[in-house]
Design goal:
alpha/beta; Aminopeptidase; Alpha-Beta Plaits; 2 domains; eight-stranded mixed beta sheet; four-stranded antiparallel beta sheet; 9 helices; 16 strands; binds nickel (II) ion
């Protein structure tokens, strides 16, 4: 099974597909065109296709001739509300929408993997569930697909996914064991005082001064409460209060995000925010209410899966290509497909080689090295084969 040669043969098709998706970006839950192309191709390959899974999601089941494990391969399809500044011929034709994260590539890659593995149907022991997910950027797509039963009938034994990563050159793979992307929790803290005239603060209880102290003090949670060898982020991103320059408002709202790699650190951060918030508020005569929402769990790579796939990946990039500590406090809802299911989510280096300035993911000039497309197909096909095809 020379997946590298087969993926290289698909090179022009992968690039053409990726560029077509790039020209026609669609935002979360609006991926109608993209999903249509995906469903059509999966049908053409002879897969069992389900559409409308999690609104615009598509699932293709490749059933092997013999029984065995079920492998879920996940690709996300959505774009971002960004006005593209790239000037290449395949730039976005939709004003204000752009594939600025590489999901155009992910969709093309998963279709390429489906095409190659379809050729091995008579040898496959088990089945592959290709999951084309909508709305990753607004972290709602995986949840919607899970609610629509994507993890049942059959339930996957292993989940695999990848992200093109333009922070690393081609030939490098981010293959952390354990947590590789952070879990995300959003919070809203409401600080209540007593409103009044700005010129007579003695008759009011000012929640703005109280909120300012809370914003500053909760920054000590990461530096003073979290173990320095663990990771956490607490960012207050939105403060809302007041209606006029001469009114002390009744309330202040603080919104923000907490990122951690483990639930225990997350619980610690929430508890300390609660204690600091209510302690400062009490001292200032205010009250606080903290509301948290656990949006998505961390993405944690299963040690056994990582161990098993390391030699597979080494065949393509050598030992030196494996970057074991590639982690980000960014979040990804692929973790919902790995909840109780061992899996591996890896990063494929794809930085654009001839650029002098770095434009990261979600930048209006984001791009990736298209040579990473056939490489990604070969990597993913080989990773799946490790579970469902007999060793040569
Ligand atoms: Ni992304």
């Amino acid at each position: 099974m020379d997946f590298k040669a087969q993926a290289d043969n698909l090179r022009d098709e992968l690039i053409a597909r990726r560029r077509d998706f790039h020209q026609h970006p669609e935002l979360g839950f609006e991926e109608v065109r993209t999903a249509g192309i995906v469903a059509e191709e999966l049908h053409r390959l002879g897969l069992e296709v389900q559409t409308g899974v999690g609104k615009t999601g598509v699932v293709g089941l490749l059933e092997g001739d013999q029984d065995g494990p079920t492998i879920l391969v996940r690709a996300d399809m959505d774009a971002l509300p960004i006005l593209e500044e790239n000037t290449f011929a395949h730039a976005s034709q939709e004003a204000g929408k752009m594939h600025a994260c590489g999901h155009d590539g992910h969709t093309a890659i998963a279709l390429g993997v489906a095409k190659i593995l379809t050729g091995y149907r008579d040898q496959i022991r088990g089945r592959i569930k290709f999951v084309f997910q909508p709305a990753e950027e607004i972290v709602k797509g995986a949840k919607a697909m899970v609610a629509d039963g994507v993890l049942e009938n059959p339930r996957p034994d292993v989940t695999l996914g990848l992200h093109l990563w333009n922070g690393m050159p081609i030939g490098r793979l981010g293959v952390a064991t354990g947590p590789t992307m952070a879990g995300s929790t959003t919070f809203r803290m409401v600080i209540t005082g007593r409103g009044g005239h700005a010129a007579s603060p003695q008759y009011a209880v000012d929640p703005v001064v109280c909120a300012a102290q809370i914003v500053t003090a909760i920054q000590s949670v990461v530096s003073r409460n979290v173990n320095p060898l663990e990771s956490a982020v607490v960012s207050v991103t939105r403060m809302m209060a007041g209606t006029a320059y001469n009114i002390i408002p009744q309330e202040v709202e603080l919104w923000g995000t907490i990122r951690t790699f483990t639930d225990s650190v997350r619980d610690l951060v929430e508890r300390r925010m609660q204690e600091i918030g209510s302690g400062i508020a009490a001292a200032m005569g205010c009250t606080t209410r903290l509301e948290v929402e656990h949006n998505i769990p961390p993405v944690a790579n299963d040690p056994l899966v990582a161990e098993r796939l390391r030699p597979v990946f080494t065949r393509f990039v050598g030992e030196a290509g494996l970057v074991e500590d590639e982690r980000t406090m960014g979040s990804e809802d692929v973790g919902l497909f790995m909840d109780g299911i061992p899996g591996m989510y890896f990063f494929v280096g794809a930085s654009v080689p001839d650029r002098t300035e770095y434009y990261g993911h979600h930048h209006p000039r984001f791009d990736f090295d298209e040579n990473a497309l056939p490489l990604s197909v070969a990597l993913m096909a080989s990773a799946v084969a490790e579970y469902v095809l007999p060793a040569e």
